[in-house]
Amino acid sequence: MMFESFRKYKALIIVIAFFQLGGCSTQQHIDNSTTLSVIDSVNGDKSVFKKSRKRIGILTSGGDCSGLNAIIYAAYKKAKALGYEVIGFKYGVHGVIHNQYIVLDDRICNADILQKSGTLLKSSTKVLTDNNGKLLSKAEADCEIIKRYHEMQLDGLIYIGGNGSIGAIKNILKKDTSLNIVGIPKTIDNDIANTETAVGFATVSEVVCNAIENIISTAQSHERVFVVEVMGRDAGYIALTAGIATGADVILIPEKKYNWENLVKKVEQSYAEKKYAIVIVSESVESEEMKHKSSKLSDALLRKEYGGIAKVIAKNLKKSGLDAKSVNLGHIQRGGKTVVADRLLGQKFGVQAVNLINQQNCGCLLGYQNNQVIGTNMNDIKTTTRNLKVTDEDVILASNLGIYLGE
Ligand code: F6P
Fold first, then answer.
1. Distance 303 CA to ligand 1 centre (A)
2. CA proximity to 75, closest of 84, 66, 64, 62
3. Are 352 and 199 in contact (CB under 8 A)?
4. Is residue 368 within 8 Å of residue 374, measured between CB atoms?
5. What is the pLDDT of residues 267-310, one digit of tens each?
6. CA–CA separation, 82 vs 379, rounded Å?
7. Is 130 among the residues known to form the active site?
8. Higher-confidence position of 131 and 331
């Protein structure tokens, strides 16, 4: 009798489940006694384990930066104290979809990792594929993550990422509100909304300052002009911060247009005064002859390719009679010893993410504002990126210091 009525309503149950998942075709629930297959990359073996404790997943997504290991370390410590086991997904979301993860322990999460840049969980900016290598659309990837979250019997997921990741978390939560996901903002670019600073920015600022100082000594010795290109994508935070901290003469950021004649005038004036000059340029700044092109990562994903603007500016300064050289700092900006500020911020975020999961108060993005960690509900996040504004304290500071920032 019961079986018959179940058959009657089965179709209806499937339709309701489909709409609850916002269009994902299946949701599998496996009870706590189910055995899972684990690829443990630490010993390289395929081992098997049962869920005997509450379980938190953690992943690092997108470009790496300093402070990621500090987040992982602190999340592990707090989770362990609260009785959770922690699954570290490898290569970001790729590891969630493809069942690649390690079970964190004290050996992996030892204090040495606090100072190490990069991510022990590895990361990936590659497009996502299914098990057959077929490209997954964003919506398909979201559904896969939801499915895997349930299959893995997670009690929470700590999703460490940049602004692209925040958009992904929002979409996942729209499809399945039962997921306990906490987003942690990290990026050297510092362009994430809802936080005054992201994990990784303090270290990149230090690394870039040190590199510029190495250039200043040779610029002074040879009485040259140097144009230094820094990362940051479409936001000028790295250029502005490092430029102010090292006493640059010109800082070109994507948020402000520059005038070539005024730029040359400023460089000539600085050079006349001190016999060297430093121009810092953010990678996405363009010139008349250099417009950045987009390259296709997949059908859905276009990404602008940056790199080379410093060379173009130096070449043009040479035409104006200045002995100008260019340096593109490139990926050294993503490494270096993690500075104390990133170690602390990362650990504050890691602990708070676990606390929120433990309280089942999830679906939010952590941020740092007015010297404290805050959580913003994903539904309240209207925009995921932020940029420099003319009213920002550091933009005003640069102008007060006589740095040419554009028009
Ligand atoms: O978003 C971080 C970042 O380092 C940017 O500043 C830079 O444009 C980009 O990543 C470089 O990405 P990739 O390592 O994929 O070349």
1. 10
2. 84
3. no
4. yes
5. 999 999 999 999 999 999 999 999 998 887 655 567 899 999 99
6. 28
7. no
8. 331
CA 190 / ligand 1 centre spacing (Å): 12
Cα four-point dihedral sign 380, 386, 391, 397: positive
Q: Is 80 exceeded by the pLDDT of residue 358?
A: yes
Residue 46 alpha carbon to ligand 1 centre in Å = 33
Ligand 1 binding pocket includes 329 (Cβ within 6 Å): no
Higher-scoring residue by pLDDT: 125, 382: 382
Q: Is 91 in the pocket of ligand 1 (CB under 6 A)?
A: no
Residue 119: is it exposed, middle or buried by C-beta count within 10 angstroms (0-12/13-18/19+)?
buried
Q: Is the CB of 231 under 6 A from ligand 1?
A: yes
Among protein residues, the one whose CA lies closest to atom 13 of ligand 1: 63
Nearest ligand 1 atom, CA 125: 15
Residue 49: the pLDDT is 54
| Segment 159-185, tens digit of pLDDT | 999 999 999 999 999 999 999 999 999
Phi/psi of residue 326, nearest 5 degrees: -125, 150
Could you say which of 189, 191, 249, 342 is catalytic?
Answer: 189
Does residue 30 surpass a pLDDT of 80?
no
Q: Which atom of ligand 1 is nearest to the CA of 231?
A: 6
- 235-268: per-residue pLDDT in tens? 999 999 999 999 999 999 999 999 999 999 999 9
Q: Which of 125, 126, 204, 385 to mutate to test the pocket of ligand 1 (most atoms within 8 A of CB)?
A: 125
Residue 361 Cα to ligand 1 middle (Å): 32
Tens-digit pLDDT profile for residues 15-29 = 444 444 456 764 333
User: Around Cβ 365, how many Cβ atoms within 10 Å?
Assistant: 27
Any ligand 1 atom below 6 A from CB of 233:
yes
334 pLDDT exceeds 50? yes
Spatial separation of the C-alpha atoms in residues 64 and 73, rounded to whole Å: 16
